[in-house]
Amino acid sequence: MIYGVIGDIHSNYDALTAVIDELQQENVDKILCVGDIVGYAAEPVACIELLIELNCISVAGNHDYAVVDKFPVGYFHADARAAVFWTREQLSHIHRNYLQKLPLVVELDEITLVHGSLNHPECFYYIVTEPDAQLSLDLLETPICFYGHTHVPLAILLDNGIRYVERGSIIDLNAKEKALINVGSVGQPRDWDLRACCVVYDSEKKIVKTKRVKYNIKHAVEKIYEAGLPGINALRLTESIS
Ligand SMILES: [Fe+2]
Hints:
Layout: E1 2-6, H1 13-25, E2 30-33, H2 44-53, E3 57-58, H3 62-67, H4 78-90, H5 93-100, E4 105-108, E5 111-114, H6 130-139, E6 144-147, E7 154-159, E8 162-166, E9 170-172, E10 178-182, E11 196-202, E12 207-213, H7 217-226, H8 231-238
Parallel strand pairs: 1-2, 2-3, 5-6, 6-10
Antiparallel strand pairs: 1-11, 4-5, 7-8, 7-10, 9-12, 11-12
The structure holds fe (ii) ion.
Fe (ii) ion binds at residues 8, 10, 36, 61, 149, 151.
């Protein structure tokens, strides 16, 4: 089985369609998403509808839940909060229902999906420090967990009791005990590479490939300004701002 794994799309439809084209060229059988489908950019409806059309299995991100009042907007900075309020105005009950029903954690064969951390996933903690990573590794009940939230792709691997980080574009999971794979961000990368990010996982070969995909950033930026969303949300696509 070949999985395409995406996340942190943040209503950036130009980036999402470029990534889906790339995944289709990779002949993926199934698309999985680690959440934050909406927020920041201008096309929440188109993004949700494409994921529904693709039968994508997704967990919820903090922005998805904030839009449907399942996570407090008080945790957001002003520009993210403005996008939450704007997004609420764009959605029909079908889209709201879709976001509301997204689970916090999905287990699928050998794969777990979560947005932030397995430690209280409803709190959307970031995995940043070694103890954060260890907590999630301890709680992980499958060999592999795909996650997001930081918008920075990397792999945290447990190999013979030794934990280490890999940042390469190809990660070999053969003989690894456990792996936390951050799939990066489709719609708003924060690792000094402005191209959209996604992951391809071949479950037979046990190989994860991180892919970077060029898309029309100018187009996405124009739509953010046209929608009247905060300018910083557009700027985040043209320079790395965390
Ligand atoms: Fe995000």
